Structure formats: C-alpha cells, structure tokens
Amino acid sequence: MAHLIPIVRCKKNTMVHVVRLLLTSGDHLRKLTALGVLPGVKIEILQTYPAYVLKIGYTQIALDYEIAKNIIVAP
Amino acid sequence: MAKVVLVGSPNVGKSVIFNYLTGKYVAVSNYPGTTVDISRGYSKINGKAYEFIDTPGMYSLIPITEEERVSRMLLCQEKPDIVLHVIDAKNIRRMLHLTLQLIDMGFPVVLVVNLIDEAKKNGIFFKLECLSDILGIPVIATIATKGLGLGKIKEEVQQYSPGKIRFSLLYSPNIEQAIHSISAKIKGEYGLSRRMTALLLIQGDKILYALANHKERAFPEVLAEVNKLNSYYQYDMEYILAVERQRAIDRICDSVLEERKIYSRGVGETLSRLTREPVTGIPILCLVIFFGIYQFVGKFGAGFLVEYLDLNLFVPYINPLMEYYVYQYIPWDWLQSLIMGKYGFFTLGFRYAFIIILPIVSTFFFMFAILEDSGYLPRLAMLMDFIFKKIGLNGRAVIPFALGLGCGTMAVMVTRTLETRRERTLATFLLSLTIPCSAQLGVILALLSDSFLSLTIWGCYILLIFGIVGRLSGSLLPGNSSSFYMEIPPLRLPMLSNVLHKAFIRMWWYFIEILPIFIITSIVLWIGDRTGVLTYIIYSMQPVMSSLSLPIETAQPFLLGFFRRDYGAAGLYEMVTSHSLSKEQLLIASVTLTLFVPCIAQVAVMIKERGVFISIIMLCSIIFLAFMGGLLLSKILPILNLYL
C-alpha cells in the first residue's frame, strides 16, 4: 500500500486522493464533509500558503493548517 | 397561500431566482454569506398567490453557522408546500447530499440545476430527464443570471403535484434498523418526516436533541438506541452517513452525467491564481485599495462629487431657493431656524445627507458590489487569514470588516456569518472601534488628502490600534479561534446591471435607515441649541477637548459624531473650510473621531445582536480608548515635530 501522509506534507500542484480523515468527531469533520472532502475523493493541491487551496471536483476550497492537517492522503 | 422555500449552498444563485420569482430585489453576490436574513416575497402565477421565501445558504442540514441554523429552523417551522433546492451544476456530486436529505425529510422538492453554462464549460453534460426519473422529483436546468430556464420554475411551481415514487436512499442494514426502531419510538411533531427525525437524532443534531428531550417520553430509550449504533463506528454518524450517501450519489451521477475532460486554463484561471497567491495577491490587494477605495471613493466620491454637488447645485440653486421661500412665507423665527438655522433640518439634515453622504456611500457600494460579484472577496479572506488569526479571528471575518468600510451597521449584522459567539463579539467590538464607515472614511480621506503624511499617520495609527486592541481583546476573551474554511468561487465578470442594481438597493436601505436619524438629530440639536443645553454640554466638554489640544468648537462635531459618525466627520469638514483647525489638530480630531462610538443605528444593531450588557461594556471601552488614543497622539506629535 502506498504510504499515507497528511495533505499538509504534500507539495503544490500534486494530485492526491483522500484515504481517511484523522478526526473522528467534531466541527472540523463536519466542515470537511460539507465541503466534499470524503474518502476516495481526488484532490489537486493548488496552493499551500497562506492557506491550503484544494481543488475538489470543480470546486476550490481554502483551508487553514489546523483543519487541513487532518486529511490523510495517498499519491 | 402556497409557500415556496428556496434552499441551497451559499453562492449558487438562490437570490437571483428569488428576485425573478418575486420581482423583489435582495442583494446577490459572488461570496458566501450575503443573505443573512430571510427574505419573503409575494407574487401571483396565473392568478394564484404564492409566498416565496429565500433562505441563507446552507451546506448541510446540521448547521455549523448561525445562518445555517436560521435556514434549518425555517424549513422545519414553515411547512413549505414546495422546496426549491438550487444547486450549482458543476458541483452536483457535492450538492445532491442536501437534495437527498430534503427528500428524506419528506418535502416536496424541485431540483433547480443552476449555472448549467459553467458546467458545460467544464465539460459536464447532464441527462436531466434521467436524473428526474431516478430522484422522482422535477429537475429544471437554469442559467439564472441570464434568465434562462426561470420560466420553467414558475410552471413547475404551479403544476406541482406530489405522488411520484421518490428516490429512497437505503443506508447500511444496521443503520436502517436503528432508524426503524427510533422512528417507532418518536411521538412528537418536528416539521420533519419520522425517518429524518430519527436520522438527525442518530447524527446527534443539537436542535432536535433539545426539542426531543422535552417532548419525548421515550427519550432515554431513543438515546440508548443512538448510542448502540454509535458504538459500532469509530467516526461520528454524520460522517458515516455522508460517506454512504456519497456512494449513492456517485452511482446516480455516473448514470446521468457525461464528463468530458476539458483542460481549460483560460484567462479566468490565471487571474484566479494571481489573486490568491500571496506574491501577486498582496500587490493586487494594494492596487484594489488604492484605486477602489482611495481614488474612487475618496478622491472621486468624497472629493470631486461632493464639491461638485455643493458648489454647482446646492450653493447656487437649492439653498437660495429654500432661503427665499422660508423667509418669505414663514413668519415665525423659531420655525425659520428649525428649517434653515445652524442646526436646521434642511441646512444640517438634508445637506449632509444628500450633498456630503450620498455621493460617498454610493461610490463605495458601487465598488463593493464589483468586488462581491467578481468573487474577489473570498480570495481576500484567504490572503488575510493569517493576519486575522493573530487577533483571534479568522479570514472569514474579512467580509464583515470590508463591508464595515461601507456601513458599520450592515457589517454588524453580517458578523452572523462568523462561527462562534466569541468571534462575533470580537468582530463587533473592533468594527465599532476602528473601522470607519464609507461616509466617515470619505470625509476623512478628503480632509487629510492635502497632506500625504497626515493621511499615512492616520492610517498607520488606526491600524496599530486595530492590531493592539485586537490582540489584547483576542487574548482576553475566553475560547479559541475557529479554523478557516471557505469555498473559493470562480472569478466571474460582474454584470454592470447587477452591480448597479445591488449598489442601488444597499443605498436605498442605507437611506431609509439614516434619513430619519439625520432629521431627528438636527431637531434634537436644534432643541438643544434653543434651550441652551447644547452650549452647556459643549462647554462641559471643553476640558476634554483642550486636553487633546483641540479648539473647543471641536466639541460640536464630537457631539454630532455621537448621532452619526459621518455627521461628526462632516462637522470637521465645516471647521476645516473655515480654517479653524491646524493640521495637527485635524489629525488628532480625525483619529479620535474614527475611534469614537459608532452611529446610533449601529449601536441599535449592536444591542440587538450582542445584548445590552455587552454593548454597554463595549461602548464604555470605545469612549475610553478613543480619547486615550487621541491623547496619546496629541502628546506624540509635538515630540516628533513633523511638518504635516
């Protein structure tokens, strides 16, 4: 199995897919779910600073480090 | 009367559709969180009356922010006859979650697939008939901004008849079993289907918990059932259900969508990248502030337009005409002074409102509408996030603050889009203390624009106070700042008609709100002047003014400033035209007045949103900080010995 890393360790302009979320409960989990960050979803990392800008499907979302670090992805 | 409720995520076009259906206009924009209030409109379709209700954007049924709560409560309480779920076509995979939940709630849903043109541009094509068959609800494709497909919505609303076999989403067997046994135990009425009530309880929905705890005798058993289900899973049930729903949605989408890979890296995409990367984004932001705010609102609106209206319209025509009629036909001295005197509602109220404030506010709202519709604001929020984090807020707060540069009263209302009470309180406080509204800003920019140094000192000083006070109050208020998440909409070219319309609507709101206050203020001041109370107050403020090294007449603009901030600034404008302020004094007065308490309208909204107690604390701190700020500056300036 490809090694899993949090999305905050990925480089800009890479394509990854979500494997799981570190959170098991709480507001962060709900926010990510609402924005469509669910296991199996493909994400393109557009930008990493000052916030993470991710492209999911046809939507771009911005997340700060605190929330983005919970997204575990595989290349 | 049949009730039609519009729901959907932020920024999908609900308000445009609402405007079309009702002929009413609510502000529509390309950023989340414009519709913080519920708008209602009435209209007739083929002679039958309908009530349309527009709701603030919601991502899911279980609310995160205050506006989502509002929408959810509304859905449950209003018992709508039709729910129009408006979605963004290209994000259908994400948006169908709410559609399925609405169907599960038992509502008669009509799905409006909007922005179909943007989807096509991205290579997504729909078999909508097929989608309609699968879901068992009417599906309509629209391009709301261009008016395409909107007629169909009317037709569908009119001919809607429930009774088709609707899509039913089956979750895993153990979840279904829990739903089954919980819904058997529920007896109360919550404006939802039994199934949905059970589903929300399973997901730990707080609103429903509070209600059911009162109503349900079997609540402990329900809880036991919920806990039993929860123990099977490592994650929150909300998440588990979302994952299962996504699987179902993907199956649906695979059969109704045709996605052709189109790699379009057009001008929009490049510009989008440039505005959000800090290296290019910050210079762009500076350009926006310089041209949009300083040049357009400050120089053009507050400088050129105000002067033009004053010198070419008011002084040569309107004023002499009024003077002539008032002195000719009104014999009583008191009435003459009430209309035309120093504090007369014509000289003070009318002139300030129409000649000084109107041009400034309209140029600001015009500018702001362009920024909103282009989708620039979320990019700004993202760029500013790390700065706002330092004062205990997050990038989301940029939107009320930017709007606050237009009208603080509106901005305080928009703080509802912030997540926690702590953030809302903090934002309200900083808005009231440090953010000048466009009218005030315009007048101050015009006043200080003679000396670039004064303007710079004023700007830096206010920013400094914003930083220090923000930092301090951020660390004093208990709680943590919440994390930043926001959807970044595509950059769209604003349509001039929409921009004008929106600017006009805000203007109108502003005027309805302020004109009475202007007139009442001038009447109160007139009474104060006639009875000598005013002289007494101004006299008693004398020591305060002199401690700030200001001439005692400055007490008057400050007093006016208590009624409206811009009123006070406009009072300063008068003093400058009559050369009774030195440049240093003007700077000190501008700083103190910027920090000083907000206008009456803003205080009223503050009390409504934050409560009396917190508002009083805030106002006292503001008065204290404003004078301390002015005092400090009046002590520093002589030491620096600058040539302003």
UniProtKB/TrEMBL annotation, chain A:
GO terms for molecular function: transition metal ion binding. Keywords: Iron. SUPFAM superfamilies: C-terminal domain of transcriptional repressors (SSF50037). The keyword Iron applies. The keyword Cell inner membrane does not apply. InterPro entries: Fe-transptr_FeoA-like, FeoA_core_dom, Transcriptional_repressor_C. It holds the Pfam family FeoA. Residues 5-75 form the Ferrous iron transporter FeoA-like domain. This is FeoA family protein. It comes from Pelosinus fermentans JBW45.
TrEMBL record, chain B:
GTP binds at residues 8-15, 33-37, 54-57, 114-117. Coiled coil: none annotated. CDD domains: FeoB. Pfam families: FeoB_C, FeoB_Cyto, FeoB_N, Gate. SUPFAM superfamilies: P-loop containing nucleoside triphosphate hydrolases. GO terms for cellular component: plasma membrane. Keywords: Cell membrane, GTP-binding, Ion transport, Iron, Iron transport, Magnesium, Membrane, Metal-binding, Nucleotide-binding, Transmembrane, Transmembrane helix, Transport. The keyword Hydrolase does not apply. GO terms for molecular function: ferrous iron transmembrane transporter activity; GTP binding; metal ion binding. Probable transporter of a GTP-driven Fe(2+) uptake system. This is Ferrous iron transport protein B. It comes from Pelosinus fermentans JBW45.
